[in-house]
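User: Structure with zinc ion, tokens only please.
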Amino acid sequence: MKDENCIFCKIANGMIPSRTLYEDENFRVILDLNPVTRGHALIVSKEHFRNLYEIDDNTASRALVLARDMAVKMTEKFGCDGFNVIQNNNEVAGQTVIHFHIHLIPRYKNDGQTLTMKPCGMTSEELDQVKESFD
Ligand code: 5GP
Ligand code: ZN
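Assistant:
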């Protein structure tokens, strides 16, 4: 399943050239065009899924294995000191390209990036309510 209007379908399937670090039957791993650190890459599925909500079992089970393997190899090759794996779903969560992908972000001491999470400040009662709303 491909979407002919989707740029990541075209990149993943080799119709548009990319700086490819790795490729197999399910994924292409490319350097991000606007990296946030040196070596910032994207795991892009060859099938078109809008995001995590929609990926099939095969893609889901292989994606994290590949993320681990890439993190190990990229750490070795790029000499980074740590690693962020980030995956955005829907516009409100920062997804700008509506085709499933995972960010692989090498981190270096003093790289100037933050990528930190800001606590939203919930009381213990509010946490209880959140828990109950999931039951
Ligand atoms: P999102 O915000 O959807 O999680 O991430 C989309 C990422 O794709 C961004 O980091 C952006 O820089 C990257 N990107 C957008 N268009 C292209 C492209 O044509 N080629 C490559 N290599 N990366 C792209
Ligand atoms: Zn697509």
